[in-house]
Amino acid sequence: MQLPAVGLGTWQGTTSSEARKELKTSIIHALQTGYRVIDTAQYYFVEPTVGEAVRSSGIPRNEITIITKFWGEWHHNPAEALQRSLDALGLDYIDIFLMHWPCAETPDRRALKISESPSFVETWKLMEKCVGDRCKAIGVSNFTQKTLDVLLAETRIVPVVNQIELHAFNPNLKLVPYCQEKGIQVMSWSTMGGGAEYATRATEILTHPLFQGIAANHQCSTGVVSLSWAVQRGICVIPKSSSLARIDENIQLVTLTEAEMTEINRAHVTICKLRIANHIKGLQREMDGRQTILGWTDQDFGWEDAEGNWLT
């Protein structure tokens, strides 16, 4: 399987009829102008719209890579989750099916601790059975060296993709080469600092003089600077936009100099360090009297050690 460097993300943050109409238009436009990867998820509640757009685009299905993800309440039964996505999309197969987070929930959406079953290893072994005509490949999302070490030691199939939060303020300078050494393709979300509604400093990836200066050097937008930085590191990007002009722009990458790459790689030191996931209210769960993300601590995920040092 080969993946283009740039795909289209479909997280909208709303399921209004107007948003669905905008999304369908943006997907059709993206496909007709050269995009060949569409990323979605059950959690986004837009799979029916994605399927409609793919069928209406006029682009042969076998030229498009469709990626979707299942949420924690389906960790006990990913085969049923796969069927639900196929039904929602109205497609015969999914190209890459991802475990959205390593942490599970009960079917009634109660967050489970890292020590509770099903573990992500148990879930992955069930996912391996799904690979076939209806599911071409499987992967993970929001995994780290810690969780991947455990997974790879006990399972048969290596994840084809690890989709992670990755941007200049959370560059994953250790996790990316780790995945590449294991043959896992890194795909980044919030590459341009998306999530500013949760973490206001994320906007600086578009507005800080560092990025503006580099953008001026290449006569492009600061968004394209961030996308180009990630792609030059061997990472696939999936920016989302309802603006057709921005969709056209996002696929036009530039080549950054080694000095510019180094400056961006150090932005988490020189400007700020930020994990957007820690600020998304929809992911917050109280567990044993403290706030967690979907029942797990930063140490459980492998994002930090006990002293708060970042590990990825």
UniProtKB/TrEMBL annotation:
Coiled coil: none annotated. GO terms for molecular function: oxidoreductase activity, acting on the CH-OH group of donors, NAD or NADP as acceptor. The record marks 69 as: Lowers pKa of active site Tyr. Keywords: NADP, Oxidoreductase. It comes from Aspergillus nanangensis. Belongs to the aldo/keto reductase family. It comes from the Eukaryota. Residues 6-266 form the NADP-dependent oxidoreductase domain. Catalyzes the initial reaction in the xylose utilization pathway by reducing D-xylose into xylitol. Xylose is a major component of hemicelluloses such as xylan. Most fungi utilize D-xylose via three enzymatic reactions, xylose reductase (XR), xylitol dehydrogenase (XDH), and xylulokinase, to form xylulose 5-phosphate, which enters pentose phosphate pathway. This is D-xylose reductase [NAD(P)H]. The keyword S-adenosyl-L-methionine does not apply. The keyword NADP applies. Its EC number is 1.1.1.307. Pfam families: Aldo_ket_red. Substrate binds at residue 100. The active site is at residue 44. It catalyses: xylitol + NADP(+) = D-xylose + NADPH + H(+); xylitol + NAD(+) = D-xylose + NADH + H(+).
